[in-house]
Amino acid sequence: MKLSILGSTGSIGTQTLDVVRNNNDIEVVAISANSNIELLEKQAREFNPEMICVYDVDKAEQLKTSVSDLNVKVVSGMDGLIEIATMNSADIVLTAVVGMIGIRPTIEAIKARKDIALANKETLVTAGHIIMSLADEYNVKILPVDSEHSAIFQSLQGNKRSQVSKIILTASGGPFRNSSYEDLKNVTVEAALKHPNWSMGRKITIDSSTMVNKGLEVMEAKWLFGVDYDQIDVVIQPQSLIHSMVEYVDGGIIAQLGTPDMKLPIQYALYYPDRKWLGGERVNFAEIGSITFMKPDPIKFKGFRLAYDAGRIGGTMPTVYNAANEWAVSKFLNKKIKYLDIADLIEGAMEGHKAIQNPSLEQILETEKAAHEDVEEMINKIN
Ligand code: NDP
Ligand code: MG
Fold this sequence. Notes:
The structure is a single chain. The protein is of the alpha/beta class. The protein is 48% helix and 15% strand. The strands form two sheets. A seven-stranded parallel beta sheet has the order 4-3-2-1-5-6-7, sandwiched between helices. The chain has a four-stranded mixed beta sheet with strand order 9-8-10-11, with helices on one face. Helix 14 (302-313) packs parallel to helix 16 (341-351) and helix 15 packs antiparallel against helix 16 (341-351). The radius of gyration is 20 Å and the shape is globular. It starts with a strand and ends with a helix. Residues 146-148, 217 line the site of magnesium ion (MG).
């Protein structure tokens, strides 16, 4: 298998390279990052890719010098990302960049007939109608890496999609599942970055704490599995043991369980339909004792509730939801806004937007830009 990785220095990217290390039949043909050239150089020396993309042009120049003894091509910017997403020698592209930056390389990879191992959920949320119909047209597989969607995908094997009655996405509820709304008013960046069960990139860790991540995953599930929003339920399952479930028309429920380890869904996406040995802890039910469930609180997790509204309105509204969230989260991480402002800013941006149905890529990117500007303007008013 020949693999190109978009975002090899991140949480998913580095765990993907662990999967490569644990097996001996994956050739990494390309790696990429936004700017972390120190780690890219290490990865290049270990995995010998044909190409490296550094989005940041100056950093790409620096990397060129430091890897000049290697037989590797260094590219940069969006053109570079597209080049590694479409290169001849790759047969599968793993999309592990964070944010909407993944849309264009994913579209081009599909057109170049590469299978996609998809972690970058923002791409499906905002351009799901384009991605899924292109995948159909070019006959490529979209293999979910997100743990919940991988669980659903695993629970669908051997069954008919027409006999699915609903999908039950599980959520950990994040660090604030037991906090009161009042407590959330003064949440610090440090507290929000402490996820109880998973270790992930900064943006998705904040999204998990607000449950916006689950909102994005609801929209991701809609596109991946072709279900309606009424058929997607979310339940909090704090132990992160049940990774998600599918209920069929006869009331039977099939779930996938396991210890929380992203290497399993990554490996399953790469080797599908094969399963390979994977080390690590195994679930010991007797030791765990109980698995518990809770309903997500729609007031405390307003950002989650808004995702259903955005999804049902459809068109460019999920882009506004996602782009407003991306902008607000980066401002929160830079301590420019308060924690509860994130959901308020998403709501404000959605209220100010009139959705365009079936948007083109250009309309999606214009909507993204407008949503960023909107949020910025609202922030200037708060401060
Ligand atoms: P990280 O922030 O850890 O990593 C992001 C990666 O993308 C880094 O390699 C980063 O490079 C790279 N990157 C960012 N911007 C650009 C750019 N403009 N051009 C090229 N590369 C870029 O994120 P995660 O790994 O946590 O998440 C990646 C995606 O996977 C997200 O969409 C997330 O929602 C999804 N996901 C993540 C899970 C997890 O467990 N982490 C679980 C399920 C889904 P650099 O290091 O230089 O910044
Ligand atoms: Mg997930």
